[in-house]
Amino acid sequence: MNRNVFLIVLLLLSITNRVVAQAVTVEAKIDSSQILIGEQARIQLQVAADSERKVSFPQFTDTLVRGVEIVEVSKIDTQYLNDRQRLLLTREYTITSFDSALYYLPPLSVMVNDREYKSKALALKVYSVPVDTLNPDHFFGQKPIMEVPFTWEDWRGVAGSFLLSIPLLALLVYLIIRICDNQPIIRRVKVEPKLPPHILAMKHIEKVKEEKSWQKNQPKEYYTELTDIIRIYIKDRFGFNALEMTSSEIIDELMERKGKDNLNELKSLFQTADLVKFAKHNPLINENDANLIHAIEFINETKEVEEENQKPQPTEITIVEKRSLRTKIILICGILVLLLSIVMIVVYIVKRLVELL
User: Fold this and answer.
1) What are 42-91's pLDDT values in tens digits?
2) Exposure of 26 by Cβ count < 10 A (0-12 exposed, 13-18 middle, 19+ buried)?
3) Backbone torsions φ then ψ of 73, nearest 5 degrees
4) Taking CA 246 as the corner, what is the angle to CA 290 and CA 252, rounded to the nearest 5 degrees?
5) Cβ proximity of 335 and 140 under 8 Å
6) CB-based burial, 140-169: b 16+ in 10 Å, e otherwise
7) Cα separation of 68 and 330, whole Å?
8) Distant-in-sequence, close-in-space partners of 160: CB < 8 Å, separation ≥ 6
9) Contact, 56 vs 130, CB < 8 A?
10) What is the pLDDT of residues 229-279, one digit of tens each?
11) What is the pTM of this model?
12) What ranges in the chain are assigned the alpha helix state H?
């Protein structure tokens, strides 16, 4: 018998706990039930329910009841209870009134899983401001409209935006003109006139004479520079690659083209250069001077005779290119970006002027 009673008590307790766990409570409180005209009061609406339930608070526009206006609606504050099994939701409604009266505030309805729950009704007493009719001198008329003092802080954004719009507008006009004229792109390339081979060779020989490497006990450097000048001259004058040929091959090639006359001195120059570079031969000073003279004479004897009325080579070339499709696309994109930027700046300036004026 006692065992059956104990089981019944446990069953009743479990049912009671389940009912309590599933209970929904809605409570509304007002922080001040009496206010003066124009003052504000706050209604706090709290809902306690199971965490898995869906709770919907009442939605108002701007009026709670006739004569009572809603100034502000706060965000919902959520608190979890009992290991997140229950939750407590709180929302505040800031109200005010401009008519003195006793207002009945009906219960606030809350939907929990499509089921309606209501709070208790509230009351709000609005008092008018007491007027001392016995002392009319204490009342003052309306004060004149005060002008807001001018400060640069308020106009800094407008002035900066206006100054920024000037170069953007100028760049926009320039890009529009560029894309409208559709003129070809003209480039001018300067071309240095090519010197004749003998003049170029003589310039290099004058440089070798100024360095005087043979007087500094540097015969190898001297003959290397001298033979390189001759090889480059032969390449440009006769049209075969003397830089990649040996001394004997150069002499043989020149004999086929020029004949056997006047090549003995050049052959002697190459032989002396080969002895200096490969056999460490140390020629005499007069021998070095003689080889330099031989190189100059060879150039003068084999140089190409210039025509008297030969026209000078052009020093500048004009290249005309059509504007590419890629350039047009870049110009159009630039115009659109600048136009959008200018519109945004104008909108900002107009908005600020309306606010300031």
Assistant:
1) 999 999 999 889 999 998 888 889 999 999 999 999 998 888 889 999 99
2) buried
3) -120, 120
4) 80
5) no
6) eeeeeeeeeeeeeeeeeebeebeeebeeee
7) 60
8) none
9) no
10) 989 988 888 888 888 888 888 888 888 776 655 678 888 888 888 888 887
11) 0.37
12) 2-21, 152-181, 197-211, 219-238, 247-258, 264-279, 285-302, 325-356
Residue 65 CA to residue 124 CA, distance in Å, equals 11
Q: Would you state the structure tokens that stand for residue 57, as one six-digit string?
A: 């608070």
Residue in this structure with the two tokens 């990649």, named with its chain if needed: 244
Amino acid identity of 171? L
Half-sphere CA count of 50, side-chain side, radius 13 A:
10
Helices (H) and strands (E) in the chain, counts: 8, 14
Residue 103: how many other CB atoms lie within 10 Å = 18
Q: Among 220, 219, 227, 263, which residue's Cα sits nearest to residue 246?
A: 227
Give the integer Cα–Cα distance in Å for 183 and 214. Answer: 61
CA distance linking residue 116 with residue 10, whole number of Å: 32
SS3 of residue 75 by DSSP:
coil
Look-up: residue for tokens 């229950």?
86
